[in-house]
Amino acid sequence: MTSNEQAGNRYDKLHALIRQGRSPFAQRKFLKRESIRELIQGFKVDAPSHVSTAGRLSAMRAHGGLAFADLRDATGKIQVCVKRDKVGEEAWARFETLDLGDILGVTGPLFATKTGEVTVAVDSFILLAKACQPLPEKWHGLKDVEVRYRKRYLDLIANEPVRRVFEQRARLLASLRRTLDADGFLEVETPMMHAVPGGAAGEPFVTHHKVQDADLYLRLAPELHLKRLLVGGFDRVYELNRSFRNEGVSTRHNPEFTMLEAYQAYGDCEAMMGLVERLIKQAATDVLGTQTFEYQGQTIELSVGSWPKVSFADEMERLGLRPDSPLEQIQRVLEKRGITIKGLTRSQLVRLVEQLFEPKTKGVPLFVVDYWTELSPLAKSTQDNPLVADRFELFLGGIEIANAYSELNDPLEQRRRFEAQLQGQRQATSDKRQAIDEDFIEALEYGMPPAGGLGVGVDRLAMLLFNQPSIKDVILFPLLKPDVSDKRQGTSDKSSNKGAGMNLGRQMARMAVVVVGLTVASSGWAQNDQQSASSS
Fold this sequence. Notes:
By secondary structure, this protein is α+β, with helices and mostly antiparallel strands. It is about 35% helix and about 25% strand. The strands form five sheets. The chain has an eight-stranded mixed β-sheet, with helices on both faces. A hairpin with a 4-residue loop joins strand 9 and strand 10.
């Protein structure tokens, strides 16, 4: 039976239920006192309890007048046992019409089978939601990667390891917050829409405010607003939220992503090294229970003493390159080493890190320090070389995880840096929307204390900790190209005219559900259904 035919059969069952005044969608709530995991963990053979639980029907096995089924919720699975002579003929007939994927509420005492499996002996049950579409691959797992990302709800139903990843991600966010809160940092929220794009390099998303008749930009980073708060008197602030880049998608890039940015007045780049090390070690301990873990064939060891450092400026010096080397010379030297970056500009030289350092970061954390100042317009220069920035990037498992500065607080130097950056951007693109954030410069003119600033790519950190190969595997709903092959973005088979006819029939069936449902509601059957269901 095709998926269209299965769906048609399920809709037929739904119509029949509604005609009987038993709409599965009429129930407003169900008293579920405990999760399935709690029921199983709390079961005592010598003191069986009467329970009420609910979940999605994931398996059914019938033998004459006896049926066993599995219910799943977010915490686990429990077996239920339904006997015809116990629930009665009418309820038994309704149970036989259930489909995998239906959401069911059951009540009854717990007992253990001969094999020791905790089971609910069903006294009564009620259908809480009808699954009108068949589940993918009968619970054997959803394998099509594109469908998994596009229809994450099916992925979560079919693949329990996927659900665990996102439960772990929630614990990761909680751990980051706990560590920062314990360090005296204040969590704040800054604007998602900016009048002037800034705080990071990248192409912004543009929107338009009708009332003000003004373009606004989804933020590239919260940095400039967070540093305004240091000017305002907050000593330690952080934000854990979304940022946006109107750029390409890859295994490490999604246009909408989660960043942690933290700023500490009277700190510096060295202080940020200590902070990011504490954050990541504690997160690994909290989420994984260890600071040693696997990532894509590598063993990552966080407890290696002081995390090693390597100098970007020194590496470039060994290549015969300095911050004031002409771009043409840099390109020639790189090409001799087999490194080619198309359309390379001076502002893009930071991309060299991927070629020079990422291969060296397998297994152990690595701080890349001493970036050229022209690549770091928001960072102070080192005390002994104005052409080198007091900045680091942290790499783990070959992935850039964090970026930090000793923050530039000189308004005159900041303006000069912004102007140089703006000139480079306008030479590289015809887009004239780039501008200097004059309000930020003015804020610096009131005095910002010396500070350290840190940015952590939370999605990439999640990839690393949970051993996931792509950033899409740790974002619930990653950005995807529109599914032009299916305007409904469904999973039904449309390879034949018969399939197309079934889709039209399904739409008509849905319209019929609405019409019949309205009739049921107006006649008061829905209320009677709730009363009868509670006694079934």
